[in-house]
Amino acid sequence: MSERAALYTVSVRTRARGGPAAPLGDLAGVLEGILDGFSETSPDGSRTVRVAGTTREGDDLFAVVQHGARGVAADIVDEAGAVRLRQRPDDLQLVRSGCLFRLPAASAQGILAVHVSNGRGIKGLFEQGLTSRFRTARPGEELAIERRSEPDALRRAVADDRVEKLRLVRLEQAGERTIPGVDKWVGAGDAARISVDVSPHSRGARIDRALLERYLAGDTGTFAEIVELAGVRFDTASVSVVLPDDTRRLFDLAHPEAGRPASRVLEGIVPDAAGEPTVESLLAALRAALA
Question: How many whole angstroms from its chain centre is CA 4?
Fold first, then answer.
């Protein structure tokens, strides 16, 4: 089972255009009140997220969150294959998860660690409900929850020779084809997206780092060399790297700070008798992710 923490920054801004971030102050107390009895359902009723309880200690605010979905009819069977119960489309699956806010009062920025289990997280619907309630509680201000980026992760991957693939993408406009044969697959009246992956064939081999090292060292002119292949200039270039925890991440070279949020492997999560993570072990794992 894959257990990770996705990391986000947290700030409070005035709702006026371009308003600066303000010190967080008692944001932890405000959010604690909002999360008491919190429940948010998607407009179509298929997804729900709700808070089962909160714990506040110093700068940390921890919330035990349940999230789930409706719409599936299924037999739930035990290890022997015997049916334990029948799930109907209007039944709601609720999975225990958690999130940990670290909100120093004197700082203009805090951090949020969100538990993601097997690729299933709570951030989208949770953030939607949280930010709308915050606007009601604090008129004139807005709660900003944004991806925590790690552009230095790309530099470290290049330095450590952990770049395994280059991906080039070009959009061929309708009636302006550069690459021969595209019209065999995409009609001449439509734009075509061309994606090319370049990587060594040998297992475990890495792509040559020379151009990437020059580009990351500040030689911006190198980008034109990176996006050119066989006389064709591509629009974007991304590289797939192997991170220290053996997960993979795709970086857009023009915007290495964009994309998925930074994440950490969660260690030490202990299941209870029902197989769900214990609250204590989940809190400890999220705190370790922020250490």
Answer: 10
Is residue 79 in some structural domain? no
Asked if 144 and 30 sit in the same domain, the reply is yes
Distances (CA, A) of 99 to 25, 47, 49, 194, 280: 20, 18, 12, 39, 13
Q: What is the CB neighbour count within 10 angstroms for residue 126?
A: 24
**What is the dihedral angle through the alpha carbons of 127, 109, 133, 5, rounded to the nearest 10 degrees?**
30
Residue range of the domain that includes 36: 3-71+87-148+261-290
Domain count within the chain: 2
As a whole number of angstroms, the distance between CA 21 and CA 109 comes to 8
Q: To the nearest whole number, what is the mean pLDDT of the chain?
A: 90
Q: Are residues 266 and 160 in the same domain?
A: no
Convert the pLDDT of each residue in 4-24 to its tens digit.
899 999 999 887 655 667 789
pLDDT at res. 198: 96
Question: In angstroms, rounded to a whole number, what is the distance separating the alpha carbons of residues 142 and 145?
Answer: 10
Looking at residue 20, its pLDDT comes to 65
Alpha-carbon span 240 to 197, nearest angstrom? 10
One domain, residues 137 and 168? no
